[in-house]
Write a structure and sequence with these properties.
CATH class: Alpha Beta
Bound molecules: guanosine-5'-monophosphate
Strand order of the largest sheet: 1-2-3-5-4
Distance between the termini: 27 Å
Structural class: alpha+beta
Strand content: 15-25%
Radius of gyration: 14 Å
CATH superfamily: HIT-like
CATH architecture: 2-Layer Sandwich
Order of helices and strands: HEEEHHEHE
CATH topology: HIT family, subunit A
C-alpha cells in the first residue's frame, strides 16, 4: 500500500489538524488519542512516512528505528507509566486489515494508568 499523504496523522504532523501533544523530537511525535480506551491512551508516531510496522521495518533507517523505540520509552516516562517510574503499560501496533488498523500511518498505542486487561478480544 502506498503512503496516503492525506491520512489524519500526516495532517497532524504537518500542523493542519491540532493534537494534544505529549512529546516531540526529531524522530517522533506523541499525542493523546482522541477516543481514549484506558485512563492513559497515548499515540507515538514516527515522523517518517511509513504506513505500518512492516513498511517501517523494511524501509526505515537504523537511526529512525532507534528513535522510535527511544521515543516510546521517553513518552512512557513522561506519562509516569514506564517501569522506571510507574507500573507498566501496553504498547500495541495494529497492522493493516487483519490487525484492525484504521489510520494508515504507523503508530504505537500506549495504554496504561490502570490494569490494561485481556490482550485480545
Ligand atoms: P488504529 O485503529 O489505526 O490502530 O488506531 C487509530 C487511533 O487513532 C484510534 O485509537 C483513534 O481514536 C485515533 N484517532 C483517530 N483520529 C484521531 C485524531 O484526529 N486525533 C487523535 N488524537 N487521535 C485520533
Amino acid at each position: 500500500m502506498s503512503y496516503d499523504e492525506n491520512n489524519i496523522f500526516a495532517k497532524i504532523l504537518r500542523g493542519e489538524i491540532p493534537c494534544n501533544k505529549i512529546y516531540e523530537d526529531d524522530f517522533v511525535l506523541s499525542f493523546h488519542d482522541i477516543n481514549p480506551q484506558k485512563k492513559i491512551h497515548a499515540l507515538v508516531i514516527p515522523k517518517g512516512k511509513y504506513t505500518d510496522l512492516d513498511d517501517f521495518s523494511l524501509k526505515a533507517s537504523s537511526e529512525e528505528m532507534v528513535g522510535l523505540l527511544k521515543g516510546i520509552n521517553t513518552v512512557a516516562k513522561k506519562l509516569g507509566i514506564s517501569t522506571k517510574v510507574g507500573k507498566g503499560y501496553r504498547a500495541l501496533a495494529n497492522i493493516s486489515e487483519h490487525g484492525g488498523q484504521e489510520v494508515p500511518h504507523l503508530h504505537f498505542h500506549l495504554f496504561g494508568g490502570e490494569r490494561v486487561g485481556k490482550m485480545v478480544e
